Amino acid sequence: MTIDIVIGIIALVVLFALEGRFAARTAQLDGRLRHGANNLGIALLSAAIGALVAPLLVASVGLAEARGWGLCHMADLGWIGCALLTFVLFDLWMYAWHRANHEVPFLWRFHRVHHTDPAMDSTTALRFHPGEILLSTLANCLVLMALGMSLGMLVLYKSLMVLVILLHHSNLAVPARLDQRLRLIIVPPSMHRVHHSERRAETDSNYGTVFSFWDRLFGSFRLRPDPSRIRFGIGRYAERTWQRPLQLLRLPLEPLTADPDQQTTGSVLKP
Ligand SMILES: [Zn+2]
Ligand SMILES: [Zn+2]
Questions:
Q1: Could you report the per-residue pLDDT of 189-248, keeping only the tens digit for each?
Q2: What is the pLDDT of residue 267?
Q3: For residue 85, how far is its CA from the centre of ligand 1 (angstroms)?
Q4: CA distance linking residue 190 with residue 252, whole number of Å
């Protein structure tokens, strides 16, 4: 078990406990154990696939090192330069991959599993279809080789990433001023809650994973003036049956017909 997984488990337990006491949406507290169990169910299936294909990541890093492939091996950046650059560029890649998951219909089939949660909380951060994990791991192998990124840097990125994604999915009542300050650098709950809106125009925004500036830079930054009124999920998959892990597994096979709710646009605040 790598350090990012240990950090993730500890942070999830702490956040889940805090959500029970300082919830942004108290109505979501009813049934949150069952909700969390469903999300952990699909997360464990995805983790199993992730563990199976993890050796590919190690092999990609080893191959790039042996052959001198990638930015860090080809340019004389020094240890710190290389570490900083690969960290930022890997997060840019995460932005691009996430955006592709919304814009490429085949990828959206898998990624919408993450978006069908009508009661987003910290456990939603782990709700991914195993197919998405497989596809992202294969794509990550190419990016690691292109960057010449070390395994240590990947683990460091993932350790910070897991803290940020658990926080921005959480149902924690983060004070507005703190959220505003966090938003200068990282993606806070106010941004990611808009991303989980059932309105398509809002779902297709705020793709950032760690840093918030990619969305500002690429014109996908959105905020809602009334964040507490955002309805999460994808309307027609909000029923309880669609929240079960085995049902979520077959969601990619469902037709891509747009849900009527997803066609409307709401008022937004641009930076
Ligand atoms: Zn998304
Ligand atoms: Zn999310």
A1: 999 999 999 999 999 999 999 999 999 999 999 999 999 999 999 988 998 899 999 999
A2: 44
A3: 25
A4: 28
Q: Is the model more confident about 77 or about 188?
A: 188
Give the chain's length.
271
Dist. CA 243 → ligand 2 center (Å): 16
Q: Map tokens 């930015």 to a residue.
A: 71
User: Torsions phi, psi of 170, nearest 5?
Assistant: -65, 155
Tell me the ligand closest to 125's alpha carbon.
2
- Render pLDDT for 78-107 as a digit per residue (tens, 0 to 9): 999 999 999 999 999 999 999 999 999 999
Give the residue extent of every domain in the chain.
3-263
Q: What is the rounded (10 degree) CA torsion for 180, 181, 182, 187?
A: 40
Nearest to 242 by CA among 118, 157, 144: 118
Q: How far is the CA of 172 from the centre of ligand 2 (A)?
A: 15
Cα(189)–Cα(174) distance, rounded to whole angstroms? 8
